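hey can u check if this looks right to u? its 218 residues, i copy pasted from the old doc so theres a chance i mangled smth
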Amino acid sequence: MEMIQRESLMLLFFLFVGIIAKGQEFKEIPIPVELTVGNNRLGLQTIINKYFPESEKFSFFSVTNLERQHRSEVNNSDFINNSQISFNLKKGFGISTGINITKFSGFAPTIGVQYVLSNAKWLLILTPNYIFSNDRNFSMLTLLEFKPKISNRLKMYSRFQSFYNQNIKSAAHERSYLQIRFGFDYKKYQSGLAANLDYFGINKIFKSNYGVFIRTTI
C-alpha cells in the first residue's frame, strides 16, 4: 500500500509540473511528451525548458521519466524527476537550484550549474548537481539533440540522453541510464527507434529496453 501511495504521489507531481509549466504563461516554447514502447517496458517522458515571463535570466528546466515493465506489479515501476530553476549568468551558463525525486529516495533539494545551447539544429543541456540527500549525492544529466533538415517538412531526429548519480557517502554508483533515439521529425511529430540502458545500485544491475518511440509537443 505504501508503494502504491508513493507511485500515486509521483504521478500527481508529474502532472502538476506539466500543468504549472503550461498554465503560468511561460514564454511559449513547446513541451515535448514522449511515449516509448519496448520489448521489456513502457515509458513516458516530458522535458520542460522554459523562460519565465518577461525574463531573459530565469528559466525552469525539468526532466521526468516514468517506466513500467509489461504485466508487472506497481513496485516494478521506475520514476526519476529532476526539476530546477536557473539564473542565466552569461551565454547559456547559469546557476540552479531545485529538487531531485526518485522512487526510493523521495524528495531532495539540489544546487548546481546549468549550460544550455539551443538553435534550429542542435540542443545541448548539461546539469551537474549536488543533491542534499541523507547519503549526499552528485548527479549529472546530459541531453544532446541533433535535428538536421532533410526537406522543407522533414528533419532527421536523434537524441543522446544520459544520467549518472553517484553516492558520495559510500563512494558508489547509485543510478544511471543512457537513452538513444533515432528517427524523423515531421510536422511537430517525432518517431523512430529507441534504446534505454539502465543501471541500478552499487552492483550496476543492468536492464535494457529496445523498441520504438513517438514524440510530440503540447
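DSSP finds one helix and twelve strands in the chain.
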